[in-house]
C-alpha cells in the first residue's frame, strides 16, 4: 500500500478480488496494540489508522447484517453472509434452542459435505465437526438425523439459503456485542441489529429499541448515552459504562453508522454527528457509505453472469481420521496452516474477534435455549425477553482479531491440542509473543524512564492537556470581556439607562473610589516611570 492510500482503495481491491458487487454490507476490522477493535474508515489513510507496525493484520467481516439475507441478489453475497453467521454460531453470538441449533448445523453439513453417504460417513460422523463451542451427544445425533432424512438432494446454495432464512428469525441475529456495565454496575452487552438497539443482560433481553425511536447517541469518556423517544412523548435516557474511553468511542461510532444505514432513506440525509459540549471539542463523526435502501435498489440493477464460487470444505476435528475431505493440521506445512483452518468457520484465524458463549447445552439440560421469533423484535423495550437459560456473556469480545500471524499459530496449535476454544488467559499468553508486544517490550527496555505509557495512554494525556488549555483560554477570554466592560463603565461617557443604573449603585461607587481609582493612579505612575526609563536610555 502507498502511504496515502485510503481505506476505500483497499476495500475496493478486496471486493474486486472476491468478485463482489453487493459490498456495502461488509467492512474491514482490525485491532490496535491495546486490543481495541476498530472498523477501517474508508475516507482516511490506512497507514494513519494503524497504530501497529506493518505487516498489518485485518479481517473481512459483515459490518451491516442484511435485514433479509435470503433476498440478497447474488449467490456470492449470500455465501459470504452465510460464512459470517456460521462463525457467529460457532462463537456463541447466535443463541438458539437445541432444535434450531441442530437444524442450522445440519444445513452447514449439507452445504459443505453434501448428501449423506454411508460409505463416506460412518456412525457418529457429525460429532467430528465443531459447529458450536460445546456439543452434546443428543445434539450430535439430532444433527445427523436431520442431515440424513430431511436435507438429501439440497445443493450447497439451497442449504445456505435455508440456513440464512432460519438464522434471520433468531433473536440474536446480527448481534455484535459490546461489553458494558449499567448504572448499578451490572454487566450488560449492547448491540446494534438491523431492527434496532438491543441490551442483553444475564439471560434476558432487557431493552429493544427500534431505530426510529432512537433520537440521539453520545459519549463522554467511558459513559455512553442513548436518548429514546417512544409513544405518548415518553422520553428516556439509557446510560452505560464501557471498559475504556476508546471502547466507548467505538461503541458510539458503531451506533451512528448502524442508525444511518438502517434508518435513513438516502445517503444525502447523513449528517456529521458531534459529541461536543460547550467547552470541549469532543469527537465528530460522519457515516460515509450508502444506506440500506440505496444498496437494495442498486442490487436490483445488477445484471451479470453469476460469478463462480469456490466453497471451502469443512475441516474435521483432530479425532476424525476416517473422514478425509478436509486436511489435518499435522499434515500441512506451517505456511499453509492459516489457509487450512480458514475453512473451519471462515474466521477461526480471528478467534479473539468472537463472543465466547455456549449456544447449546449438554444433553442433561435438554432444550435450554429459548429464542423468541422475529415478531418479538417489534415489541417495546418494556418487555423483558428471555433469550437463554444460560447467561449471554461473550466475555472476550474486547479481545477480538489477532494482531499478528504468530499469535494465530499459537492459538491454532492450542486449539488442536485440547479441542476447545482458547481461554482468555491462553489468548493473552499468545498475544505476548506477537511482534507488536515484542516491539513494545524492547521500547520499554530502551526507555525505562518513559513510565511505560502506551499510545492510548499518551493520547488520553494529550486530550486532558488540550481540555485544560481550552478551559484556561475560555477563562482568560471571559476575564478580558469583564475588563472591557469595567473600563466602559468607569471611563466612557456613555449615558445609557443600563450603565446609569449600574453607576448609581452604592457598591459600584465604593468600588470605583476605593479600588479602581487607586489602581488606575498606580498603573499610570508605573507607565510614566517605564516611559521615562526608555527615554533616558
Please explain how this structure is put together.
With 537 residues, the protein is α+β, with helices and mostly antiparallel strands. Among the domains are: 99 residues, Acyl-CoA Binding Protein (Up-down Bundle); 136 residues, Roll (PH-domain like), CATH 2.30.29; 63 residues, no CATH class. Helix 3 crosses helix 6, helix 4 packs across helix 5 and helix 10 runs antiparallel to helix 11. About 23% of the residues have low confidence.
H-E order: HEEHEHHHHEEEEEEEHEEHHEHHHHHH
How many helical stretches? 15
Mean pLDDT figure:
75
Low-confidence stretches: 315-382, 395-452
- Reported by name, the CATH topology of one domain is PH-domain like
Q: What is the CATH architecture term of one domain?
A: Roll
In the sheet with the most strands, the strands line up as 4-5-6-7-13
Q: Structural class from helices and strands?
A: alpha+beta
CATH class of one domain: Mainly Beta
Amino acid at each position: 500500500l502507498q502511504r496515502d492510500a485510503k481505506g476505500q482503495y483497499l476495500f475496493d481491491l478486496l471486493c474486486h478480488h472476491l468478485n463482489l458487487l453487493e459490498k456495502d454490507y461488509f467492512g474491514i476490522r482490525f485491532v490496535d496494540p491495546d486490543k481495541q477493535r476498530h472498523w477501517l474508515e474508508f475516507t482516511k489513510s490506512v497507514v494513519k489508522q494503524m497504530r501497529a507496525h506493518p505487516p498489518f493484520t485485518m479481517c473481512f467481516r459483515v459490518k451491516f447484517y442484511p435485514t433479509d439475507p435470503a433476498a440478497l441478489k447474488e449467490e456470492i453475497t449470500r455465501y459470504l453472509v452465510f460464512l459470517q453467521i456460521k462463525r457467529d454460531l460457532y462463537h456463541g453470538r447466535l443463541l438458539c434452542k437445541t432444535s434450531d441449533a441442530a437444524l442450522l448445523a445440519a444445513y452447514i453439513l449439507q452445504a459443505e459435505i453434501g448428501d449423506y453417504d454411508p460409505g463416506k460417513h460412518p456412525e457418529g460422523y457429525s460429532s467430528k465437526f465443531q459447529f458450536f463451542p460445546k456439543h452434546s451427544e443428543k445434539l450430535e445425533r439430532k444433527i445427523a438425523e436431520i442431515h440424513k432424512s430431511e436435507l438429501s438432494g439440497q445443493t450447497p446454495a439451497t442449504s445456505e439459503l435455508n440456513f440464512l432464512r432460519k438464522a434471520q428469525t433468531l433473536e440474536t441475529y446480527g448481534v455484535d456485542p459490546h461489553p458494558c456495565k449499567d448504572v448499578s454496575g451490572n454487566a450488560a452487552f449492547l448491540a446494534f441489529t438491523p431492527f434496532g438497539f438491543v441490551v442483553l443482560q444475564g439471560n434476558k433481553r432487557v431493552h429493544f429499541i427500534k431505530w426510529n425511536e432512537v433520537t440521539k447517541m453520545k459519549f463522554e469518556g467511558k459513559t455512553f448515552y442513548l436518548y429514546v423517544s417512544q409513544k405518548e412523548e415518553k422520553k428516556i435516557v439509557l446510560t452505560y459504562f464501557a471498559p475504556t474511553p476508546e471502547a466507548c468511542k467505538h461503541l458510539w461510532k458503531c451506533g451512528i453508522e448502524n442508525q444511518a444505514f438502517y434508518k435513513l432513506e438516502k445517503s444525502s440525509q447523513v449528517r456529521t454527528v458531534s459529541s461536543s459540549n460547550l467547552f470541549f471539542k469532543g469527537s465528530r463523526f460522519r457515516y460515509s457509505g450508502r444506506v440500506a435502501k440505496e444498496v437494495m435498489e442498486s442490487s436490483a440493477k445488477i445484471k451479470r453472469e453469476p460469478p463462480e464460487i469456490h466453497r471451502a470444505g469443512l475441516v474435521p476435528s483432530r479425532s476424525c481420521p476416517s473422514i478425509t475431505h478436509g486436511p489435518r493440521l499435522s499434515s500441512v506445512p506451517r505456511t499453509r496452516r492459516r489457509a487450512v483452518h480458514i475453512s473451519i468457520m471462515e474466521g477461526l484465524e480471528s478467534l479473539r474477534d468472537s463472543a465466547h458463549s455456549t449456544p447449546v447445552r449438554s444433553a442433561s439440560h435438554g432444550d435450554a435455549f429459548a429464542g423468541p421469533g422475529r415478531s418479538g423484535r417489534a415489541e417495546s423495550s418494556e418487555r423483558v425477553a428471555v433469550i437463554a437459560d444460560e447467561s449471554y456473556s461473550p466475555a472476550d469480545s474486547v479481545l477480538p482479531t489477532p494482531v499478528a500471524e504468530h499469535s494465530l499459530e499459537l492459538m491454532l496449535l492450542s486449539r488442536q491440542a485440547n479441542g476447545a476454544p482458547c481461554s482468555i488467559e491462553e489468548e493473552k499468553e499468545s498475544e505476548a509473543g506477537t511482534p507488536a508486544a515484542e516491539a513494545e517490550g524492547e521500547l520499554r527496555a530502551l526507555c525505562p524512564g518513559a513510565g511505560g505509557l502506551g499510545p492510548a495512554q499518551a493520547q488520553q494525556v494529550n486530550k486532558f492537556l488540550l481540555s485544560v488549555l481550552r478551559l484556561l483560554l475560555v477563562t482568560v477570554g471571559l476575564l478580558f470581556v469583564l475588563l472591557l466592560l469595567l473600563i466602559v463603565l468607569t471611563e466612557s461617557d456613555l449615558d445609557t439607562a443600563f450603565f446609569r443604573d449600574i453607576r448609581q449603585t452604592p457598591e459600584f461607587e465604593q468600588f470605583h473610589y476605593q479600588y479602581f481609582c487607586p489602581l488606575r493612579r498606580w498603573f499610570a505612575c508605573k507607565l510614566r516611570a517605564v516611559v521615562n526609563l526608555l527615554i533616558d536610555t
